Amino acid sequence: MAAFLIKRFLQVALLLAALTTGASAQSLIRDAEIEYALRKLAQPIFAAAGLNGNHIKILVINDSSLNAFVADNQHMFIHSGLILKLKTAEELQAVIAHEAAHIANGHISRRLSNMRSARTAAGLGILLSLAAGAASGNTTAGTGAAIGAMSTAQRVFLSHTRSEENSADQSGARFMARAGIDPQAMVKVLDLFRGQEAFSSTSRHIDPYALTHPMSRDRLRAVKGYAAAYGPQGKPDPNAGYWYARARGKLGAFIRNPNWGLREARKTSYKDVALMMKAVAYHQMPNVKKALKAVDALVKARPNDPYAHELRGQILLESRKFNAAAAAYAKAVSLAPREALILAGYGHALLAQGNVKKALPVLEKARARDPQDERMMRDLAMAYAKTGNNGMASLATAERYALRGRLIDAALHAKRAAGLLPRGSAGWNRAQDVLRAAQAVAKRR
């Protein structure tokens, strides 16, 4: 890493660390099928905005509140509560269009001039913590003397937010129209936000300058004007409703009560989505027999869908049927060899099966494609340890802690890794990245 990039990394680490606390950090929900469905919904929006969708990852934060957030030019975060609350694909696309406008309009580039360091594990960990904290609207500090610094830093970070949000609404409505999506869906989303604020007992005390978005009642008036001015110009995607049903159905079936999944499965008009939701719901109960019956019917209905085979592998794996699980994941990988989360699941199944030698290269490939998967990093550390590579095991553990924003713990393992790995090697350099981030945060505190 070049010297100027290290300097920028430390500056970004200090700023982002000041904007978040351990208490505000929330977990990500990583699922290959959900993320693929979100990418499908986002494709026409990104194309209309002139953005390369291959470079933007849409991640789901496990939070019941209604919010979405862009932390840099490559990561969009949407709260699970928002996805489950929205009623149509177009409404979710309105959220994506607004956040895409922040990227297309250069808002993030101006706010943080260089986020390339977020490609490191430590940088990603801090970035994800920022997204969780800022998206939740938590502007409180952690403890003691850090309160003033955090409050000041967050206001600096959000100082242009109000004008940027208005600009993003206008651009987002225009992108929707270009993609053939009725911008009236954005009006519905803002109306939902306005209703949430009206029922909030604390809404009258909210400081609009401290929010990531201005007050929804102000935005709603403007968005109604944009929606009236723009009409659908392109051709809408006839499959958008299907992909929304898959994303919302699987997300809800996993994080809500199993009865919700069974009830919603009866409502959907897509038979394969209903089978998927039933399989998840029965698995959550747990009722292994019914779960496997539903997922087997799903695989029969969608034999070339890697996500159907992946779900079958997950159910088998968590039912301790390790050999069958590994076979199901292997089929999924053959259908989607570049899907990192499926590769990670396959590696996990191979480890459970006891095939460490085969699991290690699979997990390494998964990490190369997506270093943001915490469970994969844990499995990779285990595979390295079992093969006697303690240096890389410590490094994987350090990066896993870094992803969680636990940089003190990450630094302990990074020091151990640096002492075991050849100086100047790729692994040693990755350990230095973690140490630099931890040191920067420690100095700030």
Automatic annotation (TrEMBL):
<dbReference type="GO" id="GO:0004222">
    <property type="term" value="F:metalloendopeptidase activity"/>
</dbReference>
<keyword id="KW-0482">Metalloprotease</keyword>
<dbReference type="GO" id="GO:0016020">
    <property type="term" value="C:membrane"/>
</dbReference>
<protein>
    <submittedName>
        <fullName>Peptidase M48</fullName>
    </submittedName>
</protein>
<keyword id="KW-0645">Protease</keyword>
<feature type="repeat" description="TPR">
    <location>
        <begin position="340"/>
        <end position="373"/>
    </location>
</feature>
<dbReference type="InterPro" id="IPR019734">
    <property type="entry name" value="TPR_rpt"/>
</dbReference>
<keyword id="KW-0479">Metal-binding</keyword>
<dbReference type="GO" id="GO:0046872">
    <property type="term" value="F:metal ion binding"/>
</dbReference>
<dbReference type="InterPro" id="IPR051156">
    <property type="entry name" value="Mito/Outer_Membr_Metalloprot"/>
</dbReference>
<feature type="domain" description="Peptidase M48">
    <location>
        <begin position="34"/>
        <end position="225"/>
    </location>
</feature>
<feature type="repeat" description="TPR">
    <location>
        <begin position="306"/>
        <end position="339"/>
    </location>
</feature>
<dbReference type="Pfam" id="PF01435">
    <property type="entry name" value="Peptidase_M48"/>
</dbReference>
<keyword id="KW-0802">TPR repeat</keyword>
<dbReference type="InterPro" id="IPR011990">
    <property type="entry name" value="TPR-like_helical_dom_sf"/>
</dbReference>
<keyword id="KW-0378">Hydrolase</keyword>
<dbReference type="GO" id="GO:0051603">
    <property type="term" value="P:proteolysis involved in protein catabolic process"/>
</dbReference>
<dbReference type="InterPro" id="IPR001915">
    <property type="entry name" value="Peptidase_M48"/>
</dbReference>
<keyword id="KW-0732">Signal</keyword>
<dbReference type="Pfam" id="PF14559">
    <property type="entry name" value="TPR_19"/>
</dbReference>
<feature type="signal peptide">
    <location>
        <begin position="1"/>
        <end position="25"/>
    </location>
</feature>
<keyword id="KW-0862">Zinc</keyword>
